[in-house]
Write a structure and sequence with these properties.
Distance between the termini: 62 Å
Shape: globular
Structural class: alpha/beta
Number of strands: 11
Helix content: 40-55%
Strand content: 5-15%
C-alpha cells in the first residue's frame, strides 16, 4: 500500500495519537491515509518497526480498565538523519497528501524547514498537487511558526514560495494525549498480555483530542477528519492555550515537585492529597486565568483525573526534560495575563521557585539526579552555585529573558514573589511551603 501521509518524528506520541487517527481513516478510506513515518535520529526504533512488519501494540488504560490495540497505520519507515533524500522523495511523491510533524519544541529549526522546503520544491518541479503540512507539537500557533520558518528558507525563491502559498497550507493544531516513554516493564507487560515481545509498544490513556484549523489543502478532508473524531475549527487558539497552560504547564510544575520529593511518577504525586490540592490551585487560580476556552474549568478537572491514572506510570524526570525550553511556552502567557489584570499569580511564582530549586540538581532529601536539558548548562550551574542564596538565585535566573521574556524578567514585584516562595521552600521545606501558600 502506498501511504499518503508523511510524518516526521516517529516517537511514542505520534504512534499513540495521530497514527491511531490515520488508522481509522485508512480503514475507511484506504491507503491515502497510511503513514510513511520517519524517526529523526532513532534508527533502532525504525529497525524494530521493520522487524514488526511496521505494526506495534498500544496499551490503552484508564479507570475503566486496560485494553490492547495492534496498530497498522504505518506502512513504511525511515530515519531522517541517515537518509535525507528519502524524506524529500516521500514529501514529493504523487501519493502524498499530508505532512505531519512531532519533532518537539526544540526541533523547529532552519534545518527542519530546509528539509520541508526541499521536498516541496521537488513537488513543485514535478507539478504535483499541494499538501497540508500540520505541526502537532506543543507550540503556540505551531502551523504559523512552521510556515514562517519555511518562508525564511525560501527568501530567494519567490516562484517556489508563490506556489507554496497558493497550493499548500500550514494549519495550526492542538493535540492532547498523555503518552509516557516506553519502559522495559511495558515491554514485559505486552509480552505477557499478547505473547509478543514488541519493543515498539507504547502506552497511553483513553482520552485523546485533536483540534485542527480548517485550513487544509484538500477542503473535503475536514469532513473525513470530523468523522474520525477530530475537531476541525476556525480558530484553534482557545484549545491550544488551554492545553499548553493547563496540561503542559501543570505537568512541568508537577514534575519538578515530584523530582524534588523523590516521587517517581505523576500518579504518585497526585496520590498525595496536599500535593494534589496545590496542583488544583495552580490550575484553577493561575494557569486557567483568562483562558478563552469556554469549558476550561471542566477540562482542568479532567486533567486532575487523568494525572491520577496509575496505568500510565509517567515518569516525572521524563517530563522535566528540556524544562528551560518549555517554560516560555507553558508559563509565560498565564503569568502575563494575570499581571496585565493587576493580579499576582502566586501559585505560578511557587512553580517558578520549584523550577529554580529543581535546577540545583538534587532532591530535598539530597538525592542527585541527571537533568536532560541541552544548552542550559549555565542555568544549572548558576542554580547550584546560588543554592543557599534565594535572592541572588532569583536575580540570576529570574532575569533570563530566554525563560521569562522581556517583561517578566524586569517585573520587580513578580521577581520578589518568586524570591519569597524560594525562601519559604528553603526555610520550611516544600510541603510546608505549599501548605502555607494554600492557607493564605
Amino acid at each position: 500500500m502506498t501511504p499518503g501521509v508523511v510524518h516526521l518524528g516517529l516517537g511514542a506520541f505520534h504512534r499513540a495519537h495521530q497514527a491511531l487517527v490515520f488508522e481509522m481513516l485508512q480503514n475507511q478510506y484506504g491507503a491515502q491515509w497510511g503513514v510513511f513515518s520517519f524517526a529523526m535520529t532513532n534508527a533502532a526504533l525504525a529497525e524494530q518497526l521493520v522487524s514488526n512488519d511496521y505494526r506495534y501494540h498500544v496499551r490503552i488504560g484508564d479507570v475503566d480498565g486496560t485494553r490492547w490495540h495492534f496498530c497498522h497505520a504505518i506502512r513504511q519507515v525511515g530515519v531522517t538523519a541517515q537518509d535525507r533524500q528519502k524524506v524529500i522523495g516521500a514529501i514529493a511523491a504523487p501519493c502524498t497528501r499530508w505532512v505531519t510533524l512531532t519533532v518537539t519544541e526544540k526541533g523547529y529549526t532552519p534545518a527542519l524547514a530546509q528539509i520541508l522546503v526541499d521536498g516541496l520544491r521537488a513537488r513543485w518541479q514535478s507539478k504535483q498537487a499541494g499538501v497540508t503540512i500540520a505541526s502537532c507539537d506543543n507550540l503556540h500557533q505551531n502551523g504559523d511558526r512552521l510556515r514562517a520558518l519555511c518562508k525564511a528558507v525560501c527568501a530567494d525563491q519567490a516562484d517556489l514560495w508563490t506556489w507554496v502559498e497558493a497550493c499548500c497550507t500550514f494549519p495550526n493544531s492542538m493535540v492532547d494525549r498523555i503518552v509516557p516513554a516506553t519502559t522495559p516493564d511495558l515491554v514485559q507487560a505486552c509480552a505477557q498480555a499478547t505473547g509478543v515481545v514488541d519493543r515498539a509498544v507504547v502506552a497511553t490513556e483513553g482520552f485523546w483530542e485533536w483540534v485542527i484549523e480548517d485550513r487544509l489543502a484538500v477542503p473535503a478532508d475536514a469532513a473525513l477528519l470530523r468523522g474520525a473524531g477530530v475537531q476541525v475549527v476556525a480558530d484553534v487558539t482557545p484549545y491550544e492555550l488551554a492545553k499548553l497552560n493547563l496540561l503542559n504547564g501543570s505537568h512541568s510544575a508537577l514534575s519538578c515537585l515530584g523530582a524534588l520529593l523523590d516521587l517517581e511518577t505523576v500518579d504518585q504525586v497526585m496520590a498525595q492529597p496536599d500535593l494534589k490540592a496545590w496542583i488544583e490551585a495552580l490550575m484553577m487560580q493561575d494557569l486557567g486565568f483568562g483562558l478563552q476556552r469556554e469549558d476550561w474549568p471542566a477540562y482542568a478537572q479532567s486533567l486532575v483525573r487523568r494525572f491520577a491514572n496509575p496505568t500510565l506510570a509517567h515518569r516525572v524526570h521524563q517530563i522535566c526534560n528540556d524544562l528551560s525550553q518549555k517554560i516560555a511556552q507553558r508559563w509565560q502567557a498565564p503569568i502575563l495575563r494575570a499581571r496585565g489584570a493587576g493580579r499576582m499569580p502566586v501559585q505560578l511564582a511557587m512553580a517558578a521557585a520549584l523550577a529554580i530549586r529543581y535546577w540545583q540538581g538534587s532532591s530535598e532529601s539530597g538525592r542527585t539526579y541527571t537533568m536532560q536539558d541541552p544548552g542550559s548548562g549555565d542555568i544549572h550551574s548558576q542554580a547550584a552555585a546560588l543554592a543557599h542564596d534565594p535572592r541572588q538565585a532569583v536575580q540570576a535566573l529570574g532575569r533570563m529573558e530566554s525563560l521569562w521574556g522581556p517583561r517578566l524578567s524586569q517585573d520587580e514585584a513578580w521577581l520578589k514573589t518568586i524570591e519569597d516562595s524560594l525562601q519559604s521552600i528553603q526555610k520550611l521545606g516544600i510541603r510546608q511551603a505549599l501548605g502555607r501558600l494554600l492557607s493564605v
